[in-house]
Every structure is written in C-alpha cells, then in structure tokens.
Amino acid sequence: MSAHFALTLRVCTRSATYAQPRREDLRHTRNLGVSTWGAQYGGSRTLETVRRLALCSLLLAAATVACTGDGPAVEDPTSTSGASASPTSDPPTSPSATPSASPSVSPSVRPVRFDSAAALADVRLLAGEIGPRLTTEPAFREGAAVVERRFREYGYQVRRQPFAVPAGDSWGVPVDAGRSFNVVATPRGFDAAEPHVIVGAHLDTVAVAPGAEDNASGVAVLLELARLASEDRTRVPAVLIAFGGEEPRGDGDDLHHFGSQHYVRTMPPAQRDALHAMMSLDRVGVGSFVPVCTGPLSPHWVRDSVLAAAERQDIPARTCELTTSDHWAFEKAGFAVTRLGSIDYPEYHSADDLPGVVDRWQLARTGRLAWSWLSAR
Fold this sequence. Notes:
Number of strands: 10
Oligomer: single chain
Helix content: 25-40%
CATH superfamily of the largest domain: Zn peptidases
Number of helices: 11
C-alpha cells in the first residue's frame, strides 16, 4: 500500500468517525418516535455525512488507481452478494477469483442461522422435563439456572434481579406470596448509557401448565438469539431478559407483569434515555404467520421496522394490538415496543400445553424475523 493511499484511508476513517450520530441526536429522535435504527442521522448531519462519504469515495478511488499492485479485483457482474438472500442460500466461499494483495481483505464468512431444532429442544427441556414453572417455586429456579448457564456459555454477563410477588390466584389455583427474579444478560463491555435495545421473554407459567407455548417457546427463541448475537453483530447492543412473574395473580395491571414492571421501575435515568426499543417474545410457536403487536400507546415505528424485516425475509406477519405481555410495562413508561406472538390455541393455560403443541417451523419464522430485526439482515 502506498503512503498516499494510507494517508487517504486515515483521513476517510476519521471523517466517517466524526460523522457518527451523537447520543443526544439518538435520544431526540427516539423521543419524537422516529427510528434511529442502524445509525440513521437527522437533518444537517445526514447531509454532512453524505458529503464526507462521497468525497472519501473519490479520494480512495483516485488513491487506489495511483497504487501499483493494489488494483481492485474485478467483481463478477453475476454475483448476488449485495442482494437479499433466502435463509437457506449459501454465500460465496471466496471473495474473488483473483486474490488481492491487500491484507485488509478478509474471506467471506458464512452467516449465522437460526437453529429451530435447538429451539425446539429447549422447549422440550423447559416444558417436557422441568414442567410448570410457577414464578415462586423451585421449578422456576431450575429453568432459570438453564437460562443463566446458556447465557454465560455465550459470553454474556448475567445477573439476577429479585423482586416480591404477592399472593393471589394463578388461573384458578390459590398461590402464596413469595420472591422471584429476572435473569438479565448483557454483552461484555455493555454501557447502559449508550443506545441499546431489550429483547425479553417470560420464563414463568401459571400453576397448572407446563407452558410449552406459553412461554417456553419465547424463551427458546431468546436463547437462540443470544447465540446468534454472540457469533455475529447486532445493530446496537441487545440486553436479553428472561422475566419472572409475568403471569397474573388477579385482575388488573398491578397483579400482572411483576418482573418487567420491576425492571422498568428500577432503570436509571441514563438507561431510560438510551433505551431505543423493547421486543417481547411471548407465545411464538403456534400458527403459520407471526403476529407483530403493540399496545395502544407505543409509536408504530418499531412494529413497522419489524414488518419491513418480515418482508425482506419473506415471512408472513400480521399486526395486532394487545397489552398482555411484558412489552406493556415498557410501553406504559413511554418506550417504543413490539410483541411477537399471541395466536390463540386450545391448550392455553392448561396441563395440555406440552411440547407437542409447538411447531418447529413457527419457531423458525419468529426467530428469523427477530434476528433480521436485530441485525438488519
């Protein structure tokens, strides 16, 4: 690489760095209900970024031509590397038929894939082997230990966030007051004051139900997303939470969503400013399309960005409005949210909510959609 090329590359790198969005820009646009997903810029910063990148492109092209032996490889006009691919397509195994002399060029990497068989195995473990996971009972703690271990295996920092749960009625069964907790996983080096998203799924069940669809299915997808994010990048860091105490112990908001309401109440101000969006995965293993829902308060840009991802991936999806999951705790606090899942099924909240209820391919549709939204693929 010539000195001229190296100098040009340094200048462009600094220019691109300075063109990145400021945290206050992200905060401002979130408050307006506008997606800043993927470092979208606002107003004059967009124009400035375009000018800088255009100038850098011209400078790099001129510098590349001036270098002897560093000429760019000719791209095959039949290549589809820049187009959207189906989930089963394989990328090229090498970047070019002509090797490049530049040490900065790396070979193509096979993209990570959502593993629906692994997700179904987790449903069988949680609902088939462990069974009903009432949030204050030992079986819930057994399921939480499985989730914690998997998060740690994928390199996350994991903590338990305890909270109190009152006595009440769990779908016709009287239950005592007790303690439960959320399992919170953050990427290493995570800064809660920087832009991020939360993806959550509740781990608990009503007293009588093994909870395969409600909600081992959501937890299984959450664990697969944890693996994918550990092997590839998300647009912004993702905090992953297995919530306790989602299931009701009576009527009304105060007796529902205990874990997510506790999490929202205890968020520090800096994290409140930095949280970009929340996605809840709840009952995601039944049906032939993916429900993409919000409550009545959230702006629709998160829902719409998920629908755009569904279109990119050719995944059938439909919108709905509901408040019966952990997204509602965040939505009431003013955050932009969505929920994936909620198709009715006859085994709901019963002893028949067993692993056979869950469809592997519906897990795949939901998981691929959630990953596409997280990673912009």
